[in-house]
Amino acid sequence: MFHKIAMTAAAALMATASFAANPDVGGAAMFEQKTIVENAVNSADHTTLVAAVKAAGLVDTLNSEGPFTVFAPVNSAFEALPAGTVETLLKPENKDMLVKVLTAHVVPGDWSAATIAAKAKASHDGFYHFNAASGDALSAQVRGGNVYIYDESGNAAKVTIADVKQSNGVIHVVDHVLVPK
User: Fold this and answer.
1) β-bridge partners, 148
2) What is the rounded distance in angstroms from the CA atom of residue 67 to the CA atom of residue 168?
3) Are the C-beta atoms of residues 49 and 174 closer than 8 Å to each other?
4) What is the DSSP string of 117-151?
5) Rounded to an integer, what distance in angstroms lies between the CA atom of residue 45 and that of residue 24?
6) Positive or negative, the Cα torsion across 54, 58, 60, 66?
7) Residue 7 pLDDT more than 80?
8) What is the C-alpha to C-alpha distance for residues 44 and 74, in angstroms, rounded to an integer?
9) Which of 35, 125, 126, 155 is spaced 20 to 30 Å from 142 by Cα?
10) 119-157: per-residue pLDDT in tens?
11) How many CB atoms lie within 10 A of CB 55?
């Protein structure tokens, strides 16, 4: 009986440890068994992103099986855009533009920061070139031990929190909005 209880307790600790591997984001725990949207709605740092995802009608997509890699800009990244940009994008008549901007932050597949960094380091120019779900070109580079994601205009977003595992992919928190051309 004691052996069975000890094994159950050990299994519970190991299960807890596997979920504890995710960093907190925006003051909230991120759980591997939840979807990208289910976790993002709890982050105080991603309220603008969540509002945009809802306005764009992308909740069902980002709750689906995936897998997706999402470069998730924090609220301050949206605040750094020119005055009125976010308000303009959130208007119903600009939904197509909003979808394009948001899907420029989504890449099909489950890409860890280590995999992205290795591909960048192995490339002939120091950049890993890939496409977002929007069709826009993105590039990744490692500088000073940090992974940076570049949009088509050459603007860089630093990955500030990497490898936040989700049931349908992974989130990498970034400090700037990737703007498609």
Assistant:
1) 141, 158
2) 5
3) no
4) HHHHHHSTTSEEEEE-TTS-EEEEEEETTEEEEE-
5) 11
6) negative
7) no
8) 9
9) 35
10) 999 999 999 999 999 999 999 999 999 999 999 999 999
11) 18
Side chain identity at residue 172, one-letter code: H
Residue with tokens 């995999």: 115
Q: In the CATH hierarchy, which fold is given to the domain comprising 2-174? A: FAS1 domain (2.30.180)
φ, ψ of residue 10 in degrees (nearest 5)? -65, -40
Nearest residue to 159 via CA among 65, 61, 52, 77? 77
Q: Compute φ and ψ for 136, nearest 5 degrees.
A: -75, 150
* Phi, psi dihedral angles at 71 (to 5 degrees): -95, 105
Q: Where are the alpha helices (DSSP H) in 24-136?
A: 36-40, 47-56, 59-63, 75-79, 85-89, 95-103, 113-122
Q: Which of 94, 173, 99 is nearest to 136 (CA)?
A: 99
- Mean pLDDT for all residues in the chain: 88
Q: Return the DSSP state at 25.
A: B
pLDDT digits (tens, 9 = 90+) for 80-128: 999 999 999 999 999 999 999 999 999 999 999 999 999 999 999 999 9
Q: Where are the domains of the chain?
A: 2-174
